Amino acid sequence: MTITEYTQSIANTSCTTETTAYMLSTTHIWSNAASCGYCIKALQAAGIDRKTILTVLYELDRAHETITVPDAEQVLQDFIS
């Protein structure tokens, strides 16, 4: 399940609006914005130019929306092994 699918599933429950809002506010899920911020800082520190950073951010956004957390963890494991 992607982050988008998760938040949509909460919104599509039979819970009240207040309960749904509470569930979303107390559920600690990965922040795509924070992920992008970390990525930008790392790429800048590595001396990557702005145009390339924007390309990476576009692809990162696509990955956030299409890859589940367990799949992303597996990508890392595959990359470092």
Explain what you see:
The structure is a single chain. This protein has 81 residues and is mostly helical. Helices cover 77% and strands 0% of the residues. The protein has helices spanning 3-11, 17-26, 32-45, 50-66, 69-80. The longest helix has 17 residues, at 50-66. The protein is elongated and about 50 Å long. The two termini are 25 Å apart. The model has no long low-confidence stretch (mean pLDDT 83).
Number of domains: 2
> How is the main sheet built?
none
Helical coverage, percent range: over 70%
Number of helices: 5
Q: Tell me how many strands there are.
A: 0
What is Rg?
16 Å
Give the termini distance in whole angstroms.
Answer: 25 Å
Overall residue-averaged pLDDT value = 83
Structural category is mainly alpha
Low-confidence stretches: none
Shape: elongated
* Topology order in helix (H) and strand (E) letters: HHHHH
Proportion of residues in extended strands? under 5%
Strand and helix layout:
Elements: H1 3-11, H2 17-26, H3 32-45, H4 50-66, H5 69-80
Question: What's this, in brief?
Answer:
The chain is 77% helix and 0% strand. It is built from five helices and no strands.
Question: Which short descriptors sum up this protein?
Answer:
mainly alpha, elongated, 2 domains, single chain, 5 helices
